[in-house]
Input
Amino acid sequence: MLALTYHGPRRVRVEENPEPRIEHPNDVVLRVTRATICGSDLHLYNGYIPDTRVGTIFGHEFTGVVEEVGPSVASLSRGDRVVVPFNIACGTCFFCQRERTSLCENTNPMTKVVGGVFGYSHTTGGYQGGQAELVRVPFADVGPMKIPNDLSDEDVLFLSDILPTAYQAAEMGDITPEDTVAVFGCGPVGLFTQRCAWILGARRVIAIDSVEDRLAFARTYNAAETIDFKEHPDVVARLLEMTDGRGPDVCIEAVGLEAKGSLLHGVLGKALRVQAGSPVALNWAIQAARRGGRVSIIGVYGPPWNLVDVGTAMNKGLTIKAGQCDVKRYMPRLVEHIREGRIDPKALISHRVPLEETAEMYRIFNARTDGVLKVALIPPGAK
Output
């Protein structure tokens, strides 16, 4: 089968790989119908995530049709269309029983930090991903959700990660109708987070980025006020100016370890890699939030440490919540938001390309050129 495989930082290619097979009675094998490149895949692509091994198949956002079914699978049959959460969960451990599927104890037992994830290095279990013609899905009775007949694969593709991630990011902000919400980042997660902030009742939404195409999309898709930090390098001062000197009630960090805006953090986190990426957006969020405000962290960081302004957070009395998304718990309610037209996920798809062109799309997505926002990858034969 064809799959996108890793051969070192910024070296990926689509090539023939062995087809996956049933390895456990509760596995299924899917024929992928749609996949996509996530912003966090760029952290792998650029070599920032430890233990990303040559030959790894990337991709943790995908839909597919069930092709093979393990003997103990009870909820799926051959031919079912499904969308699959990026986190792999056993369904029975301490955390899964509490709907914290991102923290599953059994799918990544080599660490106490995070559960298993498709296509995201051996730090998350070493599972192969879905930027491929076929993918093995473990614990098939737990994760996959059947796609309703009235929705297309592209309607629900982003239920695999970025839409639930955005909803959880907004939910962690404990948004009230009086709140001004600042969202750092206008990538796909940031854009969905802005939309979810409105759904959860925000009074104002302010979006921060430096890519004009994305800022324009935030204004049109989300009716957000925007800050271009190329024009306003002191983002904190600009946010204070926009909020009567007090700061936003809620600041949501949707950027992660490749944030721009600080030479020091860029050198330490991205060039020398002596800290876990560049926490510029996170520090801006902490410094801008009003006293007693809330900071929600959904951007991806790696181990081991960062120069984060914890003293300011403590002295301002901030509430900070963070975490990988527990995707499964949000799927049903987000399906209803899609049906009711509150969210149109397909609107973020800027490029639809054959799987064979995935390596080139990584280069374009990484450079943020050609108006790229979100890419739908279409395997051979998929409709």
